[in-house]
Amino acid sequence: MVCDSHVGEHIPALPSGVADALGDVDLILHGGDLTDPCVVTELERIAPVVAVRGNHDHSAGSSLPWTTIVRIGGRRIGLVHGVRPAPVEIASALVSVAAGRPVLLGLLGHLRRRLPEVECIVFGHLHLPVQQCVRGVLMFSPGAVYVPEVDPERLSTGPTGWAYMRYRKGIPTALKRPMVGILEVSAAGITARSVPVLGGLRGSV
After folding, report:
1. Cα 152 to Cα 49: distance, rounded to the nearest angstrom
2. Residue 173 burial (CB < 10 Å; 0-12/13-18/19+)?
3. Model pLDDT for residues 43-57, shown as the tens digit of each residue
């Protein structure tokens, strides 16, 4: 599982550590904000890819669906970026900036209602690892490939940059690092874990 790679927008290419972190997976799910279609091509060198569109995929992901359901080992896994209608996104952002930490304002419940007939929902958008069970469904965000706190070339000037970093201030340092996710599907169920991407942001697979 890969989310929020932001290639071409914030970094020039996928970090080399992405391939190492994914190991020998059978399928890669991308939870949106690829921002460059080359991301799918690069990931397909590792394994087949299923991707959805994110709110930063204005052109690169325009042909991708907003949501999809993948069937693996008899399990139904929903894939979605996680962005909500603008009024809710704005309200969540304002509350988060005021609090100095992410405030989700019912995001997990919203995604659960949006994809009701699944056993797991994987999503991105937050640039933050999340793992929680909501009404019997595993909600999993592995975190993001692109994490601004570890990007030496990050531009965070101006009100928008200040607000974004203020929102992330309350995230534990251990979670502010590039990550991908691993889902393991078996007869017993679905388990998920986040895996750090080592080696820095500015490299290529």
Report:
1. 29
2. exposed
3. 999 999 999 999 999
Instruction: Give the pLDDT confidence of 133-167 residue by residue, as tens digits.
Output: 999 999 999 999 999 998 877 766 678 788 888 88
Amino acid letter at 50?
V
Strands 75-80 and 67-72: antiparallel
**With 0-12 CB in 10 A as exposed, 13-18 as middle and 19+ as buried, what is 129?**
buried
The pair of structure tokens assigned to 32 is 């949106």
| Phi, psi values for residue 15, rounded to 5° | -60, 145
Q: How far is CA 46 from the centre of its chain?
A: 18
Distance separating alpha carbons of residues 35 and 80, to the nearest angstrom:
15
CA distances from 200 to 63, 91, 149, 152, 161 (A): 30, 33, 12, 10, 22
User: Which pTM was predicted?
Assistant: 0.92
| Helix/strand/coil percentages in the chain, nearest 5 | 25, 25, 50
Residue 204 pLDDT more than 70? Answer: no
Alpha carbon of 21 to those of 74, 110, 124: distances in Å? 25, 30, 17
pLDDT one-digit tens code per residue, 85-140: 999 999 998 999 999 999 999 999 999 999 999 999 999 999 999 999 999 999 99
